[in-house]
Amino acid sequence: MSNLTNDIQEMAKRAKKAARILRILSTKEKNNVLLHMALTLDRKRDFIQSENKKDLLAGQEKNLSAAMLDRLELSDAVIDSMMKGLREVAALPDPVGEIEKLSKRPNGLLVGRMRIPLGVIGMIYESRPNVTVDAAALCLKAGNTILLRGGSEAIYSNLALAEVLQEALVSENVSADAIQVIPVVDREAVDIMLHQEEHLDLIIPRGGEGLIRFVSENSRIPVLKHYKGVCHIYVDVDADLHKATPIIVNSKVQRPGVCNALEGVLIHRDIAREYLPQLARELMAEGVKMLGCKESVQIVSEISPAMESDWGTEFLDLRLCVKIVTDIDDAFSYIDVYGSQHTENIITENYTRARRFIEEVDASAVMVNASTRFNDGGELGLGAEIGISTTKLHAYGPMGLEELTTRKFIVYGQGQIRS
Amino acid sequence: MSNLTNDIQEMAKRAKKAARILRILSTKEKNNVLLHMALTLDRKRDFIQSENKKDLLAGQEKNLSAAMLDRLELSDAVIDSMMKGLREVAALPDPVGEIEKLSKRPNGLLVGRMRIPLGVIGMIYESRPNVTVDAAALCLKAGNTILLRGGSEAIYSNLALAEVLQEALVSENVSADAIQVIPVVDREAVDIMLHQEEHLDLIIPRGGEGLIRFVSENSRIPVLKHYKGVCHIYVDVDADLHKATPIIVNSKVQRPGVCNALEGVLIHRDIAREYLPQLARELMAEGVKMLGCKESVQIVSEISPAMESDWGTEFLDLRLCVKIVTDIDDAFSYIDVYGSQHTENIITENYTRARRFIEEVDASAVMVNASTRFNDGGELGLGAEIGISTTKLHAYGPMGLEELTTRKFIVYGQGQIRS
Asked: What fold does the segment set B231-374 form as a domain?
């Protein structure tokens, strides 16, 4: 076994051992750790920022883009926001220990299901070092230990943040092994991590498509992953167009670079001639470049003809596809082919079609008369999110504290045996 | 692409296409299919049994054991039991469409979570052909399509059963692609199936450790697997010994060859001298061979000294390990090392230790004063089970209809946009 393999395996073992302690900490103990972490971050600003500077300098030497350097920087504002995040997570209800469906069986056994932590979570992520704190906080609150592997460009920052968090853990008499950052930037480290199936219970990758693909193809540990968000809005024949336009504009332009931004609008043929010119005017005023089907180009000449490769593309910028459809079933067929099971919305005042859309569309979030930008853990009421899952197993959509737990069966007997 | 790869990929694609229909079938439509299947099985007994005979003859030629041949046979009793199973699944409540946690956000959005089918389930199993019907019924009731790959020794039986089930599907105007059996016995077929991540949502393997390991190491699709059941009972110092003995005997001898049978008993030191001789007498009268720690051998000389490799072994026969422990924490440490996170039980009248055991032990089922044999979907109230998961993601413990579904977010807006 190589030294690297051995080192990572030892970290994974320690994480598993610490998980036995974490899973029985009381809510109060966990909250005390989180609040202590916020104070320690504040006290150690200088240390964090001087380590962060090493990453920033290295980034400048490597000619990272200004946007990348911006994401890397642990400014006072970013540290404040991490502290705020820690306090918010402390304030969230603790899902661990919650008992569901407790009921009596005919033989008198009292059977229920109790929420418990998953155990050890492996997080593999790129760039932003604040993920180190945000992810660690959520995992800890849900009673899990975490093994983090951040991007090479943030290595000094991530190690500094881990050191600060561990200081708070130890002050509260919790094992420092509850939060560990792998101090190796080698890609091999990821592969070794993905083979620790004896010690890790879940891998959450966050980053570009290349990373996600590498993780899902090589992991022996269950993975909760998020591919892409190709979100659509279907404007039904009975849409209230005064609702439709602001929703579409908001979904597209409020933050075009994120996964819940809008990438395609489907418009019912019977209203296209009236509505598309209005909509195009509003969108173009916001700088949106529209790509459309033949019919839509005939209605609004400023719309460029879409190429086949445009349909279903996650643009992450101000481009938007427009397609004219015959009816709701035609919209369903389009979404089935080009959607990414992320967020799909309908604008309609028609009760039956609203109900059909909610029931029949397969996506992590389906909405009536609302912006696609609401598919977000905070907006949907989860309090905070550790990612958005576009696979269906375990979690589908934003993942909050509950998604970092599982349920075991609990049985209260009186001497029952099976006959 | 090889012909085999192409064929299996085509089946997976058809299964995915059919899943779009299955996911919106009403409960009544699904139940009609299930009841129709039971009738068709009954009507086609001769066909099923003549195909089954081919497998039985081939099995005899291959010198399969009597037990194997017995598991392979589709006798009238087995067909009756499959029919009964279909009717029972029809009678179960349908989890699909159930809405949980519907509540209003501060901005007026009504947000909830709706249960939906997973999509396409791949089932890989060995020997018993009745699994074909049992698994297909549960998947269909939960709105999923299924791609089945049974053992080579049951190929004629599995194909015949699929043909019968498909006849019932078509009679009820549901696509025959909802239930497909891969007609290839080659191990390569499994590997190809495990790479259909674009079309399949979940793989459930059922069989020996070799199959499970192959599947989990090669699958690009999420896997719900069951390794082994090394179940323990801890007899606390405050145990009611009149409850303890029948529970231990039942857990060990009622059906020793199954995963929820007992493999180890932990006895508190302060009662060992009084209790172990009684317990040993009862167990030995049932033919149980006891293997114990040094101390237990000193108390009961008929107990054989256990070797290190005996601890944590899933015997699946009438052997049982006995270990004397200092207290409940010593029991926890033993279970952490040697348990398999399947079923762990305590016998006690002490309130605080009962509560500690329920909360602190990490296993798919933890029980107080009851037989380990109750860790079973039927016994725990799930109605029917498609397997028992010993990994924590998505499902932990017996998996019923609900575990064959997931939840999407549903959002009812009034024109809300994000600010």
From this structure: Aldehyde Dehydrogenase; Chain A, domain 2 (3.40.309)
